[in-house]
Amino acid sequence: MYLYIAGLVVLFYVYRWFRELGRVSDKSEKFVYITGCDTGFGNLLARHLDSKGFRVIAGCYSEKGEDELKKICSDRLTTLHLDVTDNENVKKAAETIKSLVGQKGLWAVVNNAGISFPTAPNDWLDIEEFTPMINVNLIGVIAVTLSVLPLIKKAKGRVVNVASVFGRISTLGGAYCITKYGVEAFNDALRRQMAPFGVKVLCIEPGFFKTTVTDFNIVENHLHRLWNKLPQEVKDEYGSDYVDKTKQVGKELVEKLADGDLMKVVSCMEHAVAAVHPRTRYSPGWDAKFFWLPLSYMPTFITDALLLKKAVQPKASVL
């Protein structure tokens, strides 16, 4: 009995592997719009898809990001100044893209732009600390997608949204998990709504990777900035050594889990854009596959117990 089940599992994975090998044709005629191309995954993806022959439209926040991509890539690549929080800028970028793609339409948009700071206990924060991240990570994703959705429908193309394992399980204070849960919800609704038009909507859910998102020097700066703003009453509740303990635990977590091979994520993005039969979801990173995602399916009391056991507790904790 168990051998039959094991055999079926093996057959399923072999079948899926063969099915996913096929790549779309006429890449030189397919335009791909990527946000957040200054650094990290977006920058690598722009370069990678350019090398594969796609017509990349790279949205960069800075002139420096645009200039560096132009130097490295072929003349197929076009750069745009893009601030995903500026709706007029988003609309202007969409108009430029419309003139570039013409009647072919836009093959894919990859919503990669995102920020992850500040991250801290929620009672350290005010609403102004939440708003910028929500505007970039969630409202920006929706605004960019809607701005080019008619072009994607015309091409029967793809929307690729970069979420996170923290869109499945919430472990952090601040807006990061909130925005990634929101991206997951937007992704799921859009996938079902666009299916009748032949548009595929796909989600990337990376684990820990070594990017600016996991740069612990930035984490430390934000922790100290927020700590210094706290009322003395709150500092007393957490204890004077709370920040130091949090820094130590955070560094150990990043050292153990953060993967330096960013191409694991970029390869998933490329597959979502280029495969004839892409997956609905991708979870790059061993920590995503074997820890965070399984943890998100466990009963709440087990998840809470495991996460609280590893968390730094405030001085006034009753646990």
Question: Could you characterize what this model shows?
Answer:
- The protein has 319 residues and is an alpha/beta fold.
- The chain is 55% helix and 9% strand.
- The chain contains 12 helices and 7 strands.
- It has helices spanning 2-19, 40-51, 63-72, 87-101, 127-155, 176-194, 216-229, 232-238, 242-257, 263-274, 286-297, 300-310; strands at residues 31-34, 55-60, 78-81, 108-111, 158-162, 200-204, 281-282.
- The protein has a 7-stranded parallel β-sheet, sandwiched between helices.
- Helix 2 links the parallel strand 1 and strand 2.
- It is globular, with a radius of gyration of 21 Å.
- The protein starts with a helix and ends in a 9-residue tail after the last helix.
- The mean pLDDT is 94.
